[in-house]
Amino acid sequence: MSFDWSSLHALQLARADAVPEMINHVLVMLSDLMEDADHACEFSLASGPLIDGDVAESVSPLLPSSCRVQGLYWVECWRVPVSAALPELFLPSRQPDVWEEGAPGRVLVATLADWAVALMGRLWPDDVECWELRVETDDWYAAAYVDVLINHLGRVWLLHLGVTD
């Protein structure tokens, strides 16, 4: 099924300052739905000011204190890594019948992922400066993760999609 989520009035009429909170609500719902005995998703969106035009320095305050920027890898469009990761990369391995293609659970999380991407489209144009971020850490970060860093209108945005297994 294909649907243009941007056509919903809830998205069109949402105040720009409310959209980040809406995205975080969807990310929490996604992480709750995909939680399993030893599988916890950690999805979040955070932002901060662009510091002296340096995105690597600007993202540092948004990372856990034990993490540092290891590298930034240019991405043509933020939608590509986000759409590739959600929900596929984070589906739990238990209960395969729940997560198989077409199963209600899979349809629900795929629909929520599409809604999250549509909301993100309100924040950032497709041609905004963006990178995939890799971190070095002195402590635990995530077993698997996709971090997308976006520079838009004097702010940096860190979308963290991680899972602990």
Descriptive account of the structure:
The structure is a single chain. The chain is an alpha+beta fold. It has one domain: Protein Transport Mog1p, Chain A (3-Layer(aba) Sandwich). The protein has six helices and five strands; from the N terminus they run ααβαβαααβββ. It has helices spanning 9-12, 19-33, 55-59, 79-85, 96-99, 104-123; strands at residues 40-49, 67-74, 129-137, 144-152, 155-164. Strands 1-5-4-3-2 form a five-stranded antiparallel beta sheet. A hairpin with a 2-residue loop joins strand 4 and strand 5. Helix 2 (19-33) packs antiparallel against helix 6.
Q: How much strand content do the residues show?
A: 25-35%
Order of helix and strand elements from N to C terminus: HHEHEHHHEEE
Low-confidence stretches: none
Biggest sheet: strands side by side, in what order? 1-5-4-3-2
Distinct helical segment count: 6
Q: Measure the end-to-end span.
A: 31 Å
**Rg computed from alpha carbons, rounded to a whole number of angstroms:** 16 Å
* Secondary structural class: alpha+beta
Counted beta strands: 5
CATH architecture: 3-Layer(aba) Sandwich
CATH class, anyone?
Alpha Beta
Q: What's the average pLDDT?
A: 92
What best-fitting shape do the alpha-carbon axes yield?
globular
Output the CATH topology. Protein Transport Mog1p, Chain A
Task: Summarize the main sheet.
Answer: 5 strands, antiparallel
What is the share of helical residues? 25-40%
Number of structural domains:
1
